[in-house]
Amino acid sequence: MSFLEIRDLHSGYQGSTVLQGVDLDVDHGQVLALLGRNGVGKSTLINTICGLVRASSGSVLLDGRELAGQRPDVAARAGIGLVPQGRRVFAGLTVTEHLEIASRIGRDGTWDRAAVLDLLPRLGERLSHRGDQLSGGEQQMLAIARALLTNPLVLLLDEPSDGLAPQLVSQVGTTISEIVQAGTAVLLVEQDLRLAFSVAQEVAVMDKGRIVLREPTMDFRADSTRARRLLGVG
Ligand SMILES: Nc1ncnc2c1ncn2[C@@H]1O[C@H](COP(=O)(O)OP(=O)(O)OP(=O)(O)O)[C@@H](O)[C@H]1O
């Protein structure tokens, strides 16, 4: 049995069904990259897993516990962590305040303030800065720190490279690898294929609200013509 098991999941927005029966497993100790063209439903899947978008049918089992249709706070307590698209840090709150709030959400575990500042030392130098005083890279680190403080079993990362300079993107890759080594599984939505390929053991490709392919990253990279066709890139 996989750690996170998604079966025949449907969800969407008023008047439009986006997820049309998603089946996907994420295993212990794994980074799984979720790829696909714009608008195929990757963010909708992430947001349905964590309860921000309500599942209309299907199943999201985390370590044997059913989460489909549950509220976001229930999903967080069960062990789903989210680094949302666009980071969503609060402009008027300091780094310290963000970390304090996050510590009260989710589960107890080894990720406490000292551990996340050890992983992301730059944040330690910015504790009194407000969200709107941070660079894009620092905001991304804060979004990751906040999610880790909930001690997730599975961390959902929605386009963490978005808007970051190449050097910072590779730093995000290193951080993701360290998080997985510490025992958290990762589902990574990413347009930056270099980042996705560098950290993920496997890739899953989404199209029109379904998973249409899943295979080891090495095999996916080996057929670049098919990869380009599936992802709609140059
Ligand atoms: N809040 C919303 N209300 C209504 N429709 C939405 C909402 N969010 C997304 N959609 C629609 O759902 C579909 C899937 O969008 P989604 O953001 O999940 O795709 P995606 O694969 O993550 O794309 P991208 O890479 O552009 O973020 C799109 O047609 C989008 O317009």
TrEMBL record:
<dbReference type="InterPro" id="IPR003593">
    <property type="entry name" value="AAA+_ATPase"/>
</dbReference>
<comment type="similarity">
    <text>Belongs to the ABC transporter superfamily.</text>
</comment>
<dbReference type="InterPro" id="IPR027417">
    <property type="entry name" value="P-loop_NTPase"/>
</dbReference>
<keyword id="KW-0029">Amino-acid transport</keyword>
<dbReference type="InterPro" id="IPR017871">
    <property type="entry name" value="ABC_transporter-like_CS"/>
</dbReference>
<keyword id="KW-0547">Nucleotide-binding</keyword>
<dbReference type="GO" id="GO:0016887">
    <property type="term" value="F:ATP hydrolysis activity"/>
</dbReference>
<dbReference type="InterPro" id="IPR052156">
    <property type="entry name" value="BCAA_Transport_ATP-bd_LivF"/>
</dbReference>
<keyword id="KW-0067">ATP-binding</keyword>
<dbReference type="GO" id="GO:0015807">
    <property type="term" value="P:L-amino acid transport"/>
</dbReference>
<dbReference type="Pfam" id="PF00005">
    <property type="entry name" value="ABC_tran"/>
</dbReference>
<dbReference type="InterPro" id="IPR003439">
    <property type="entry name" value="ABC_transporter-like_ATP-bd"/>
</dbReference>
<feature type="domain" description="ABC transporter">
    <location>
        <begin position="4"/>
        <end position="233"/>
    </location>
</feature>
<keyword id="KW-0813">Transport</keyword>
<protein>
    <submittedName>
        <fullName>ATP-binding cassette domain-containing protein</fullName>
    </submittedName>
</protein>
<dbReference type="GO" id="GO:0015658">
    <property type="term" value="F:branched-chain amino acid transmembrane transporter activity"/>
</dbReference>
<dbReference type="GO" id="GO:0005524">
    <property type="term" value="F:ATP binding"/>
</dbReference>
